[in-house]
Write a structure and sequence with these properties.
CATH class of the largest domain: Alpha Beta
Helix content: 40-55%
Radius of gyration: 23 Å
Mean pLDDT: 91
CATH superfamily of the largest domain: Tetrapyrrole methylase, N-terminal domain
Distance between the termini: 72 Å
Largest sheet: 5 strands, parallel
Shape: elongated
Structural class: alpha/beta
Oligomer: single chain
Length: about 270
Amino acid sequence: MTTWHPGLYIVATPIGNLGDLSPRAAEALRRAALIAAEDTRTSGTLVRSTGSQARMVSLTEHNVDERIPQILPAARDGVVALVCDAGTPAIADPGARLVAAAHREGIRVFAVPGPSALAAALSVSGFDGPGAHFLGFLPRQKGERTRALRQALGGAASVVVFFESPGRLAATLLELAEIHGDPETVVCRELTKLHEEVVRGRASLLAQHFEGARGECVVVIQPNPASIDGSAVVPLVAAMKRAGARRSSAAAEVARLTGCPREDAYAAWEDV
């Protein structure tokens, strides 16, 4: 039997299938005197379905700083739940600032674990390795997005994961193919929902498949290995140039084979 102490409860909610709400999560929502949610309308339907009578307040990027002083006193005296629109709160959302404030104030923080788009996507990707680098939501500006991907793909992580809007998904996948040699990628769309789709393949092929996609998307990438040997780039480009390949095609293929940035292979064309 769970003992419900005063504090801030981080409650994971379904990312699509309402059957994924755990009994303990439902009980936490019923026990709560106050529930902080990204969107009280979206979460309100789920909260009411549990029989909860809790007062709900919105917690967004725009009001989190003013809400924290209102929420923490309630968490000091009773059960307060933090939820997001779907999945586990405080991962790539402003709820993390509320959790940090609770820790600073000595208020107990409890996990009520459950659905997570991040964990779900990793589990169905089939990629394995010593570490995963989570980028959250990628920047909207292409230059910032490209820099973020370059840094992540050039690091030590064996898997890179990020959330992306369906409207930008195809373009982002094409950028990924260009800057990192078309890596093996998995796109998870509408996880646990009626039209759930998990597709694995090269980024360039997935860009075609997901052109005009709809719904929530998580992208999981297995970065290409670091360049086999930097000295191999020029000979490979030279061989393709002698064979009559076009510059852009040769650069893309050398980048795929060696893991070097495409523009490095493109520049090497002038050296042969």
